[in-house]
Amino acid sequence: MSTAEKQQFLYFFEAIRPELITNPEAWTKEDREIGKAHYSYLKQATETGIVILAGRSRDGLGPAIVIIEVESEVSARDFMENDPFVKYGLMRASLHPFRAALMRKV
After folding, report:
1. In terms of DSSP bridges, do strands 91-98 and 51-56 run parallel, antiparallel, or are they unpaired?
2. What is the distance between the terminal CA atoms of the chain, rounded to a whole angstrom?
3. Domain residue spans in the chain?
4. Residue 19: which residues within 8 A CB-CB, separation 6 or more?
5. Which of 71, 50, 70, 63 is nearest to 92 (CA)?
6. Phi (first) and psi of residue 48, to 5 degrees
7. pLDDT single digits (tens) 79-104
8. Exposed/middle/buried for 31, CB within 10 Å: 0-12, 13-18, 19+?
9. 3-98: what fold?
10. pLDDT category, 4, cuts 50, 70, 90?
11. Backbone phi and psi for residue 18, each to the nearest 5 degrees, phi listed first
């Protein structure tokens, strides 16, 4: 399927335990392992062209987001639900259709 036929989606996170956003000491060993798996999941998906952008605000107030490009909303939801942050219950995520209007060239 060509890039023109794919759709973009954005999902953002909400921590199950709000202190995870502002207090690094709140992360358990298991939470940190889930964080590493989340990073690896997104890194691999970036390398294969699914993830367009992923990141978080640094002030603890703004969002953490992932923007992806996939074939369908079903594919997007599946990708989001298999993100280790969501899959293992550390974060809730909300999926939204998205369209990047402007992107700088890397």
Report:
1. unpaired
2. 23
3. 3-98
4. 26
5. 63
6. -95, 0
7. 999 999 999 999 999 999 999 999 88
8. middle
9. Alpha-Beta Plaits (3.30.70)
10. low
11. -55, -30
